[in-house]
Amino acid sequence: MKKRIGILTSGGDCPGLNCVIRAVVSHATLTFNWEILGIPYATQGLLERQTMPLNMHGWDLRGIDPLVNMGGTILGTINKGDTLAHADEILASYEALALDALIAIGGDGSLNIIHQLANLGNWNLVAIPKTIDNDVALTERAIGFDTAVNTIVDALNRLTFTAASHDRVMIVEVMGRTAGHLALQSGIAGGADVILIPELPYTIRGLCEHLAQLRNRWQRKFAIIVVAEGASHCSEDLDNTASCTSPKCGRGQYIAEQIASCSNNQIDTRVSVLGHIQRGGIPSALDRLTATVFGKTAIDLIAQEKYGQMLAWQNGKAVPVPISEVVTHSPALVDSHGDLVQVAHSLGIYVGG
User: Fold this and answer.
1) Measured on CA atoms in the order 95, 97, 100, 105, is the torsion positive or negative?
2) pLDDT tens across 257-273, in order?
3) Judging by DSSP bridges, how do beta strands 317-322 and 309-314 pair with one another?
4) How large is the angle between the packed helices 181-189 and 145-166, nearest 10 degrees?
5) Which of 345, 14, 336 minimizes the C-alpha distance to 197?
6) Rounded distance, CA 317 to CA 73, Å?
7) Inter-residue contact 214 to 223 (CB < 8 Å)
8) Any bridge partners for residue 317, and if so which?
9) 13, 65, 82, 133: which is the annotated catalytic residue?
């Protein structure tokens, strides 16, 4: 029986989304001859009943398929607005579009909202995790994370040479919200001396002592510090004379001012906030492969009429897990006693704790 499948991307963009779309369309049309409708701008597009018919060669450029290496999403996406306030209209739109199933690609916040809509409207929903924060529960890997880590590591590689040339401490602020996966993994891979994440408490005193040891014991006159945007601080270490004390002040700038205070302005610091650079770019090979497997397996689940599931990457395979369980356990944070934290300690990296 021919099916009519909707697909949307929701939340912040990231590399690899187009690879999912490509795999979904290819497998659905070549294997099952199903109709695939792209829904622009997530639930906003669903609300407005916008659709984009997708087919195998609709995006070819003289026979070249650009989706495999194109960042962002051809469907567009949003990460704002009060979706649930328009729940009745969105539910009506799903019915009006006569969808047999919906594939939603999103992070923990987006999937939570779409899961609620699916329960209200009894939708046939299959979800795919994507986020550079890697904080979706029950999956080892989310689309976009690997590329973001590689982007940060590339920045750390470049900044290390400048730091060494000028005897500076380079502070790199990265994304991640309340989770430190990005900071921890990129910091270890990029040779950081200090990694500060939300899950591990640290002190400015401990940080400054570590920098002093690098200089005095190991004659290292420069250092690289990776700071997660959600990293907290200990109140006893606050420098009341620092100008960067408001909640809107970036965590990297705050750390820079605290280091200046504890070193009597003897340590020269520079702050780089990578921001949305982490979201962009060409997807890595690993993200392309993961996205392709997720897209193909999502169509297989629909063929088997297994709904209410999110595809998770576990032990090298894409496996279905209940979306309700994912929502309950998200966001997934760094295990403060986990292997990667222990690796950081063994390398002499200051991570607090």
Assistant:
1) negative
2) 999 999 888 899 999 99
3) antiparallel
4) 50
5) 336
6) 24
7) yes
8) 314
9) 133
> Which amino acid is present at 119?
N
pLDDT of residue 235: 47
Q: How do residues 14-67 score in pLDDT, each as one tens digit?
A: 999 999 999 999 999 999 999 999 999 999 999 999 999 998 776 666 556 788
101-109: average pLDDT: 97
Residue that the structure tokens 């590591």 belong to: 153
- Residue 310's nearest CA partner among 288, 292, 296, 294 is 294
- Whether residue 174 contacts residue 182, with contact meaning beta carbons closer than 8 Å, is answered with yes
Q: Is 312 helix (H, G, I), strand (E, B) or coil?
A: strand
Output phi, psi for 270, to 5 deg: -135, 145
113-137 tens-digit pLDDT: 999 999 999 999 999 999 999 999 9
Annotation marks residue 146 as catalytic:
no
Residue 234 to residues 100, 127, 173, 258, 307: CA-CA distances in angstroms?
52, 38, 18, 12, 45
Q: How many residues does the chain have?
A: 353
pLDDT in tens, 144-184: 999 999 999 999 999 999 999 999 999 999 999 999 999 99
Strand, helix or coil for residue 322: strand
Whole-number pLDDT of residue 266? 87
Kindly give the interhelix angle for 181-189 and 339-346, rounded to the nearest 10 degrees. Answer: 40
User: Any idea what DSSP says for residue 61?
Assistant: B
Torsion over CA: 322, 326, 329, 334 (sign):
positive
Give 83's contacts (C-beta < 8 A, 6+ positions apart).
Answer: 43, 90, 113, 117
Please check whether residue 117 is in contact with residue 327, taking contact to mean a CB–CB distance below 8 angstroms: no
Helical segments of the chain, H only: 17-32, 42-47, 87-96, 108-121, 145-166, 181-189, 204-216, 251-262, 285-303, 323-329, 339-346
Show Cβ contacts of residue 294 under 8 Å, excluding neighbours closer than 6 positions: 20, 23, 128, 143, 311, 313, 318
